[in-house]
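$ ./design --mode recover --in tokens.txt
reading tokens...
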């Protein structure tokens, strides 16, 4: 069963959180509420999120300050942030949002379909990265265990390599389709860059698998990085 991605919704107004939940419920992911910047930072200490929807104007710690804290933490600095704001002070205000680390800056009222589409892209990228980490972990177990399967049962190396290759091929196919979708929709530069990073990691994992095939070399191939 595929684990659902978590999406963090940060807004001090309960009615805004309710509206966001209504818009994003069709994505069938786990929606987590936070009514303040402090509450959002607390949630980020324990859970992993695919994307953060962050209101700019909040009492106490505003969206810009919250984003700054998120980007300073190694655990959370790569999580995409979409700023939502009910005010528009011109290009300078928008620039401040991007300077704070946002991948997008959306003014209210916004088109629900557009917001849902943008969030879905980052959810897909997050899920592909999770799948890639699983494949890398399985490959690492193969290299360290000398052909032992994840469940601890004996399995021929050739059979396990074939299984790994098939799983990786499925992820590669999905990543390629997602990249084409981003190109067709002229997506945000941050989403395109994230997709390119995913493809590079997939290429590294494929090379490591190919190096394990009989007759391709005697050395132990490098294990792909999970970063």
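writing sequence...
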């Amino acid at each position: 069963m595929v684990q659902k991605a978590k999406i963090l919704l940060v807004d001090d107004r309960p009615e805004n959180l309710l509206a966001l939940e209504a818009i994003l419920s069709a994505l069938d992911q786990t929606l987590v509420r936070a009514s303040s910047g402090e509450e959002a930072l607390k949630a980020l200490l324990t859970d992993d999120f695919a994307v953060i929807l962050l209101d700019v104007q909040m009492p106490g710690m505003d969206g810009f300050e919250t984003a700054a804290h998120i980007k300073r933490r190694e655990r959370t600095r790569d999580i995409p942030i979409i700023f939502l704001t009910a005010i528009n002070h011109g290009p300078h205000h928008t620039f401040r949002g991007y300077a704070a680390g946002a991948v997008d800056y959306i003014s209210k009222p916004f088109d629900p379909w557009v917001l849902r589409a943008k969030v879905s892209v980052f959810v897909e990228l997050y899920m592909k990265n999770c799948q890639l980490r699983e494949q890398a972990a399985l490959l690492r177990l193969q290299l360290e265990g000398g052909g032992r399967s994840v469940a601890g049962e004996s399995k021929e190396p050739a059979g396990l390599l074939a299984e790994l290759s098939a799983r990786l091929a499925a992820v590669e196919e999905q990543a390629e389709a997602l990249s084409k979708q981003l190109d067709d929709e002229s997506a945000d530069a941050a989403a395109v860059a994230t997709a390119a990073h995913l493809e590079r990691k997939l290429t590294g994992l494929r090379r490591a698998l190919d190096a394990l095939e009989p007759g391709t070399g005697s050395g132990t191939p490098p294990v792909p990085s999970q970063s």
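exit 0
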